[in-house]
Amino acid sequence: MSKKLLAIVSLLILSSMVLAACGPKVAEGTVATGDLVTFSGYSTTEIPTLDPQLGEDTVSIGYIEQLFVHLTNYDLVTADIVPEAATAWTVSDDGLVYTFTIRTDIPWVNHNPETGEVKQEVNADGDPLFVTANDFVYGIKRACNPNTGSYYSGIIATAIKGCEEVYQVEDPENIPQELIDAIGVSAPDAETLVIELPGAASYFLSMTPMWTIAATPQWAIEKYGDQWTEAGNIVSNGRYVLNIWEHGVSRTLLRNPLMPEDMQGGGNIDKFVTNVVPDTSTGYALWLNNEVETSGIPDGELEAHLATFPDESVSIPDLAVFYIAYRMTKAPFDDVHVRRAFGAAFDSATYVAELRQGQGLPMKHFAPPGIFGAPPIDEVGVGFDPDFARAELALAGYPDCEGFPQVTLLGYSGESTLAWIEFAQANWEKELGCSPDLIQIEQQSFSDLLTATKADDIEAPSMWTLGWGPDYADENNWVGDVLHCENAIRMKRECNEIDELIEEARFESDPEVRKALYAQIEDAFFGYEGEYPFFPIFLRIGYVAEHAWLDRIPALFGGDQWYTWTIDEAAQSAAQE
Hints:
Layout (H helix, E strand, L loop, with lengths): L17 E2 L5 E2 L1 E3 L7 E6 L14 H10 L4 E3 L6 E3 L2 E6 L5 E6 L6 E3 L5 E4 L12 H12 L8 H5 L5 H5 L9 H5 L3 E5 L2 E5 L7 H4 L10 H7 L10 E2 L3 E7 L3 E6 L15 E6 L3 H9 L5 E3 L5 H7 L4 E14 L9 H9 L3 H8 L4 E3 L23 H10 L11 E6 L2 H18 L6 E6 L1 H7 L10 E6 L10 H5 L13 H10 L4 H16 L7 E13 L3 E2 L14 E2 L1 H8 L1
Parallel strand pairs: 4-16, 20-21, 20-22
Antiparallel strand pairs: 1-2, 3-10, 5-6, 7-8, 8-12, 9-10, 9-13, 11-12, 14-15, 15-16, 17-23, 18-22, 18-23, 19-23, 24-25
Helix pairs in contact: 10-12, 16-17
């Protein structure tokens, strides 16, 4: 895919500048209503949230990337950490203090969907509000607060001094102020953000593009509560503003006319329109009719698509690893032998080769190739071993699945996931003797699945499908951020010696020692004596149908940077006539 990004030709018209009485200028803008360069897309799911501190899924994170600037960003070509809200940073000699210089010309804005106006937020005195280091302090402390309800709170908690003490507080309703004050984030002035670490984590800088620690508008959150991210309410600071969010139906983003010119992103797309459709087949039909720019490709259409549209087929290895997880406190998966049996009875190689038609790599452990600390792909983990699986199920007291109770397997909505969980069901019948009626299959939207897996043991499913894509390129983002007992809230892992190894590896300074520790940790989870909180299945390498008039570079970490994408308007218009 070309890495060339066309220079943006502004189609946004700034209205007259309003001078606040005895104060600085307050900017207002109106999004142009003429011909806009428009990206049309589809989604099979609702956006779970637009709140930076609450985002935990790829859909939410993708939109948050457009609506909010982050502390730093990733270079799409090199994956280097590059400036965003922070223009520069320094690290103390002991690696425990990071000091960021924050630019102070990024406005907080609100978009009125009815009038098309984008107005800069002002304070009580009518002075314009720009992003400051204090807004990052608020966002980070908000993320550390367990009452915020953020999954990613557990991920950043171990990386920021004092955050974990607040996140793990015994009485969340009565958090001592001194604990909050002790969180290692401060703003000596509007342009300076200081973050203190509990230990010298060599990967910390690679975490700084994460949405969880983005600046958020305290006044808007306090005014609107849970409704602060709705269209018309939301106060944001990114390259786009939220124009429409009709839940479960459609959403539209428009260029933010008040964004500093050097932060617009280089792309030329003024408007992103996404409609919710029931499945990928519907979306692919829209692509064939030139009504959307990109699409997933239904399994049954892949071979024909590659033959017919070789120049409009893009293979994207996104480093996302998919798995089937267990509720470890719910019988029969409270028995490690059952967990091992079901994992070792799944034929990942056949699944990838036949059902996914080669789109991926079978996985035996969690972290994929390319992530620092990940073991070689074939050296750690059991993978498919039906003899071992049958022996483990017998050890659990269910030889040939005799007496095994009925359990539920919850998957995402969609045809491809149904094929995946039906394949699992068939494997368990073939290799373990478990009748299909013992594995009750259910499907829900992604956001509903996330909610269902947080329920108590009675209401929660026995098993469910999930995937994990990288937030930063370190093994800690895998075994530490997903499987550490304090983060595995859905699986309900109990803390043990594996977590001690994770904590040791987290702050180990010798990279070779870290690698050895992570190989030991992966084996402790997925080896023959492994705990098996879930079983890894495949690393996704998926084909996407993409019209030739779109030029983009997919992001490996965080959300895609839509503001860097370009569309050849002439080619798009010609195809749509």
